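Input (Gfo/Idh/MocA family oxidoreductase):
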Amino acid sequence: MTLRAGLLGVGMMGRHHARVLRELDGVELVAIADPGGDPHGVAGDLPILPDIDALIAAGIDTAVVAVPTRFHEEAALALAAAGVHTLVEKPIAHTVEAGERMVSAFADAGLVGAVGHIERFNPALQELRRRIAAGDLGGVYQIATRRQGPFPSRIADVGVAKDLASHDVDLTAWVAQSDYATISAQTAFQSGRDHEDMIAMTGRLANGVIVNHLVNWLSPMKERVTIVTGEKGAFVADTSTGDLTFYANGTVAVEWESMSVFRGVSEGDVTRYAFAKREPLRVEHEAFRDAVLGEQSDVVTMQQGLRTLTVVEAALASAGSGTALAP
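Output:
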């Protein structure tokens, strides 16, 4: 069976969805809609349809929604009503209430509703999660992430928390296989916009792991790093390159007297792993396709995407109130 796919939005992210959909086995991209036209010239032989209704009228089985966050709910509800399995770019919606309506609509219709939390499909994080599950780190103590870089002019309807920190919240809960128990945050507004452009989050997962996320749009250098510290050492995953490095706790006695006063962990061997590195967006689309076909899949469900948004909203509320919250 070949799934007929439609794509809503061919902007900076949508153009990549178009490329991958055209290359995906078992899927045929048959329709593209974007009220803003085709700025990157990805439509090829397909006409650019004006709206979601025209996309649905093309007779599609699945859809990818890659429009600004504030339009996610309207598009998703229309697709659910039309019986179309849908992958919505992250975050799931602009508010928790909108996300809840989306989750309910797809559940009631018996459709696959998914959210594009692409970091779960990054090869470095997949290898990291596999090695943690295999016990390579022993007990996990802390997960810290840094995600920073220049301001993207294409983002106008949400702040850095929903646009970027949602990645870190989702991947942290997924890597640790535990939900957030508490979260607190501080935000900054430095670029003259209504939305925050910097957030520092800290919290604890239900399994006791301490978490920290530093996220901003104010740095001239781009960084995408996840550090997991545990009983046997620390993993460092660079999701911009797909690299995973392990820093083992030392087993060699320290002979430098001033250093030997410190009775904690010492430096051991450093290992950078070699493993297959497939494009995360392609792996994400394969997971969505398999879920639609009823096969085993690691697709990020709308329910999971809603939980991530709930944690991010709690972090923003914490920044306003100055207190830690239970999301």
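The chain has a mean pLDDT of 94.
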